[in-house]
Design goal:
Elements (H helix, E strand, L loop, with lengths): L5 H7 L4 H25 L5 H9 L5 E8 L22 E7 L5 E8 L3 E5 L14 E8 L5 E7 L4 E6 L1 E8 L6
Antiparallel strand pairs: 1-2, 2-3, 3-8, 4-7, 5-6, 6-7
Helix pairs in contact: 1-2
Length: 177
Amino acid sequence: MRIITKRHWRGWNSEDAKESEWARKSAHENWEIYRQQLETLRPRLSKKNFEFFKKGLHDGRLISFSIGDGLHLDLSTKEQMVTISDFLRTSVEIKVLNAEFNAIYDLKYGKVTKSVFDFPSDDPLWGKNIDDWGYDELSEVNEKVLRHEVLFSSGASILIEFEKFSFQKTKYDGSRY
């Protein structure tokens, strides 16, 4: 994470006026840099995906994080015979409940080249659970691969490098409180 870091988050919650002011100013400047960075990635994303990355899932809750070579396979039925060649597609799936608890997002990353889930973090922020989806950013690794990073309020983080992305949003009738 380069745009909003753990230092920013600590600064916003610091009693040190200098650190708090640095976090506020730096985050404001970094958000403008990120908006420009995201705009350069627009041609590589569908309109729907661009809007997703522009809005993010701030204060959402992680339901699940899965990585594997066979997430696309339905092994619950014996009708589908699989071979070793069916396990050549590393993918990641993330399920998140949004901040309002009224929608579930199923995020799917294909052609994954790298995935890191840092929990518990060696550099924690608050709490003992994964906690709220804080900030995320999309960046370019190269002309084919994008990177999506997520920082949670606990200090946990997710990093995924991928070529394909899609998501589905499903209505959910819940309440945060």
